[in-house]
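Consider this:
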Amino acid sequence: MRTDFALVLTAVLLSATFRRNNGEHASKGPCRPGFSQSFYSVLISRDVLQGQGILKDTTLSSQKVKFDDCMGNKAVVFQSSNPIFSVQTDGSIFAQGEGASLDEPVQFKLTASGPHTHVWETVVQLSLTDLPSPQQNENEVTTEEGKVVERKEKTDVFQAPPPLIMFSGSGLNSSKGLRRQKRDWVIPPINVAENSRGPFPQMLVSIRSDQDQDISIRYSITGVGADQPPNEVFNIDPVLGKMFVTKPLDREHRSSYHLRAHAVDMNGNQVENPIDLYIFVIDMNDNRPEFKNQVYNGSVDEGSKPGTYVMHLSAFDADDNTTANGMVRYRILSQTPHSPIPNMFTINSETGDIVTVAPGLDREKVSQYTIIVQATDMEGNLNFGLSNTATAIITVTDINDNPPMLTSRTFSGEVPENRVDVVVTNLTVIDADQPHSPNWNAIYRIISGDPSGHFTIRTDPVTNDGMVTVVKPVDFEMNRAFMLTVVVSNQAHLASGIQSSLQSTAGVTISVQDVNEPPYFPTNPKHIRFEEGVPAGTSLTTFSASDPDRLQMQQIIRYSKLNDPADWLSINRTNGQIITTAMLNRESVYVKNNIYEATFLATDNGSPAASGTGTLQIYLIDINDNPPVLIPRESQICERMNKNVNGVNITAADADTDPNAGPFVFELPNFPISIRRNWTISRISGDYARLGLRYQIYLEPGVYEVPVIVSDSGNPPLSNRSLIKVKVCPCDENGDCTTLGAVAAAGLGTGAIISILICIIILLSMVLLFVVWIKRREKERQTKQLLIDPEDDVRDNILKYDEEGGGEEDQDYDLSQLQQPDSLEHIISKPPGVRRVDERPIIPESQYPIRPVVPHPGDIGDFIHEGLRAADNDPTAPPYDSLLVFDYEGSGSTAGSVSSLNSSSTGDQDYDYLNDWGPRFKKLADMYGGGDDD
C-alpha cells in the first residue's frame, strides 16, 4: 500500500498588525470610521459555498470583518462589486446559486456608505480549500499502524494579505478497508519580524514528506533570497527539512519573499510537487518620520479670521503606513513670538495643515511667526513613537488697513507766472502699511480750487510725497493766488471695514509771482497780400506788439528784424511799420507756394528786458512779368515728310502762373522768307504745337536753326523769339534716322563722307608699309657682318657702357704687358695649374677673321669690341675684373704691333677725335693726338 504524503509546516504566525486590527494589545485612541482592514483573504470549503455566510460580523471570533462608522452603524449600506456575492445588512457575504465557482481565487470590492455621503472601501479575496485547524494535535489522530491521519472539519479561515496559494488534497482507498486521506502541502504565510537580533541562523519552518520513512529525501529551496540575489538569506537543511533565516531582515529594503520548496530522492528524481513559500517581513518601528524640508514658508493675510488656511507640512515614514509604525501625527511645539497670544495657530494632526485659531493678526505689530512642528509615528504616541521636527515660517502679509494721513492740514507755496514744470510745494504723508506696495503708494487728487487745470500732483516713488507741479502757465494779471483742496488715497482700496481718516484731506495755498512778460504780437503769424513787382519804399503794413504787463509801469517796445531771407523788408523801430527795400518777386527762390515769410522781434525795456517774436507772411500775387521759353531747344526730323512722320512736338515753359502762362501761341516769323516756305507749325492743344517741313519740301541733311515766336496768355501777353535746332536726316521706313543720315545731319555731304573714307584707307596703308620696312631693317641688321666697311662711320656702331674707371691709377697702363715675350721657355717649363694673368695660356690659338694689313683708324672701336666679345666667350679667359691677355699675333700678323701706332702721329691721319670717345681711349688720344712730342 502506498505511503501517505504529509508535510508538516510549523511557524510562528504572530503579527503585531494582525493583533492590532483585531483589538488585541492596542491602545484605544480616537474613533476612525471605516473597515478594520483594506484587504481580506478568506479560505473556504466548497460544501459551504452555496447559501452559506462566508464572512459575518461577529464578536464570537477574533477573526472577524469589522466596520465602524463611529455612529453605531445605524444607517450603513453595504454593496458588492460582484453580483454573485451578495451583502447583508449585518455585513455577511453569501454566494448566490450555482454561479459561485472558486476554482480560482476571486476578488471583489466591498463598499460601505454612510448617512453623510461618506463611502469606505475594502477588498475581499475568496479561495477554495479545506484547511486544518491551527491546533495540529487536535486535528490529527494516530491509526493502529502508527500513521498520522488528519481529522477533517469544516472551518472558515481568515488570513491577512498577501493571499496564500493552497493545493487541494486527494483521497486514497486502502485494500485492507482502511480509508485514509492524503494530505498535500498546506503552508500558511511565514511572518518574520525585521531587525531580529537572532541568534542566527533562526529556524522558520520544518518541511517533511511522508515518504521519508521509505526512501531518503533531500530538501531544497529556490527563489530570491535563496539561490538568487540576495543569496543565502534563507537556507534549508537538506536532510531534516528545516528552513532557516541567516541574517536580520529589513522590511524597508524588501517586504516579502517568494520561495519554492523541493523534495527529491537520492537520484534527483522529484518525489513531491514543489510548493510555494511566502515569507512576509513584519514591520518594526525603526524609522523616524522625515520632513521633505527642514524649513517651510507660508503666509496669511493680517486680520484673517480663525480657521483660515495657512500652509501644509508633510513628513514621510518609511515604516508600514498600514500599521501604527508608519502612521504620523503632527503637533505644534512652540510659536515665536507669543503676541498677541501664544497659540495663534493649530495644525491638523493627520493632514499637517496649519490654520489660524485666534483673531488679532496685525502685520504692523508682528510681521512673521516661527513655529516648530513635531511629527511622531505610532499615531502620535509620545511614549512609543519616534519623532522629528521642522520649522514653519509664517509671514503675515499686508492688507490696506491703514489709510494714508497727511502730516498737516494746510500747505503753501509760490510760483512765477508763465512757468511750467515747476514744483510749487511738497505734500508729506504717513502710512503704516507695507512700504512701496499698492497698500502704501499714495495717489493725490485736486478736488477744488483749480478749474482751469493749471496744477497737478505727482507722487514721489521713493518718499511717497505729493509734488504740486505747474502744468499750465499761470498769469499774475489773471490770478494772483490759488486755494486748492487735495485728497490722498492709496493705490489699493481700503480693506473692508476700514474707514478713511479726516487727515487724508488738506488745503494748499499757492501765490503767483509777477514777472516781466515779453511783448506779444496779437496776430501771429500775420497774413497780407500784395502783387509782386512792388517797388522799393512801399509801405506794406504795421506789425505791432502788445505788452501783457498791465499792472506794471508803462513800458516802451522797440522793433527789429530777426529774419528776412531776401532782404526785401525793413521795420520801423518805434511803431512796427513794414516797408519794402527791394522789388518783391514771386519767382524768387525765397518764395515758397507764393508766400514770402519774415520774422520780427519786439523787445520791451523791462528789468530784465523781455522780447517776443512775430512772423509776417506776404502772399505775392502773380503778374505777367516772365515771357514763355520754347521747349525743346534741339530735335531731329526726316528730310522728307510722309504720313507716318508728322514733325516735332514743341511746348513752352513760363515762370508765371495762371492766367499769365498758357495757353500759348506758337508762330513762325515772317523773315527770313525761307522759314515760312520750308517749315510749318500746327496747333495740337493750348500748350503744345507741332513743327514740321512743308509737304513735298526736301532739305539737304544738316542742322537748321528755326526761329519760333511763343506768346503767353497774360494781359498784356508777353512774347519770346526762340531758336530750335532741328537736325534734318534721311530716315528709314519707320521714320528713324539712319547711321549715314545721322552723320550727314551733322553737316557733311556725301562727297565729303567719301573723301574721309579714302583718307582713312590711305593712312592705314602707310602705317602697314612702315611696319614692313621696320621689320626688314631689323632683319638686315641681324645679318650684317661683324666688321663693317672702312668707309662706315665708326661712331654709328660704338656702344656706350657704364664707366667703371677709378681715376688716374686706372689710366696708368703698362703697355709692355701687351707684348709677347721673346722667349717662351720659362712658360713651357712650368707645371700646369694656375698661371699669372700676364702669361700666355698654352692652348691653340683662336681663329679670327683675316683683317686688312693696315687697319683703318675707324676700325679701332670695332676691333676692341670684337676682342671683348671673344674674351667673354672664351672659357679659358680669366675673370672679367682681371687683366686680359690677347693672343700673340706674331710677326706675320695683319694688324702688326700696337707700338707701331706711334708712327701715325707724323702721318696725315688726325686722331684728335679720340678725345671725344671717353676715358677708354684717352691713352690712345695722348699717344697719337694733341700735337708734337717733347
